[in-house]
Amino acid sequence: MTDRRTAMTTASTVPYASPASADGAPFVSTPQRYDAILLAGFGGPEGQDDVIPFLRNVTRGRGIPDERLEEVAHHYRHFGGVSPINAQNRALKAALEAEIARRGLDLPVYWGNRNWAPYLGDVVKEAAQDGRTRLLAVATSAYSSFSSCRQYREDFARVLEETALGGEVTIDKVRQFFDHPGFVDAFVDGVVDAVRGFFADGVAPQAVKVLFTTHSIPVDDALRSGPRDIDFGPGGAYEAQHRAVAEVVMAKVGEVLPEAADISWELVFQSRSGPASQPWLEPDICDRIAELPAESAEAVAIVPVGFLSDHMEVMWDLDEEALEAAEEAGLKAVRTPTPGADPRFVAGVVDLVEERMAATPREERPSLTKLGPWYDVCRPGCCENVRAGFKPAAAGVAP
User: Coil, strand, or helix at residue 74?
Assistant: First the structure.
């Protein structure tokens, strides 16, 4: 893989950016004041009547009929039509507010979603009405891809245009935090606890498998994740980032449990939703679980490394389907926790905010993989949507 530290530093105007970020440099060098934090979430239904309207929002522009949406709706209906994601974002918002107050920062947190109330457009208007016009966004996704980064940035631009606030409000975004200690360390304890439990049950290290799982995406989208001038391998920056984080987590597990050094791990994928004719990242987690007994595995730790909190893809695809697959395979299985509102993660997010405000030099920024620290301002051509191409986006250099 090409050394990303030699990536281009071409200056360019960044739409809707603060003065410190507008020149397009990958890392800001001028301290910047912000008025508020914009916590940007995916959103989810909060009742049975919300499910189909929510799924229409998620799939807008694709022409998917309601009868096909019902195939996904049953996941939500299983839980009373309520996605846990909004409650989790409320908890994260409250935790961020408490940590920000503890540090004496005058930064209210506005929370808005892409696909359900409270909508981003409404909260951006609310912030502007409150006189908070210089916003720093934190998206609830740690990795680089269209759906986990650029789509948020496109929504920021869309909202500023639709609200006619593009000449008044600026939106920057903290760097992708996949390898920030606050995010990574929140996974380690869960893996240690799972492995210790297997050992206590008499499972030998060689019979334990750790599967790090994340949302599958189309291969073509994966190849376009991250800057286009860097070769990250066949899965693009998206897969490379996940593999790098998993490697760090297992190294930290080994520091706590030296006997875990013989445990094997791999990256798997879940929640595929595209047509069978379209290649998506593989292998699927349930397919791999079914294969493990033939490889002399007796226990599997399922680590949702691609997810910030226990939302639907975790509660259904892992807690229901993957754990059922493990039971059918005769394997002991544990699904480890997501960061959620873990104090280490919350503190790490506020560290990222202060890092951006202070324009901390790149070499002084914490990152646990060779891929980081990631960029403050997304690079030209980063994370293209293969089907729709590039739309206007905030917090990045235009392609």
Answer: helix
Question: Under DSSP, is residue 397 helix (H, G, I), strand (E, B) or coil?
Answer: coil
What is the C-alpha to C-alpha distance for residues 162 and 145, in angstroms, rounded to an integer?
24
pLDDT at 8: 36
- State the CB neighbour count (10 A cutoff) for residue 345: 27
Angle at 363 between CA 256 and CA 222, to 5 degrees: 75
Q: How far is CA 168 from the centre of its chain?
A: 29
Residue holding tokens 């359900």? 116
Q: Is the pLDDT of residue 12 over 90?
A: no
Give the integer Cα–Cα distance in Å for 90 and 79: 19
Residues above pLDDT 70, as percent of the chain: 97
What are the binding residues? 83, 152, 215, 313
Binding-site residues from annotation for Fe(2+): 215, 313
Biggest CA pair distance of the chain: 64
Tokens (6 digits) for 382: 């980063």
pLDDT of residue 151: 97
Q: Give binding residues for Fe-coproporphyrin III as ranges.
A: 83, 152
Burial of 200 (0-12, 13-18, 19+ CB in 10 A): exposed
Domains annotated for the chain, with CATH where assigned, are: 4-177+342-364 (3.40.50.1400), 181-335 (3.40.50.1400)
The residue whose two tokens read 């405000």 is 357
pLDDT at 11 exceeding the cut of 70: no
* pLDDT for 4: 41
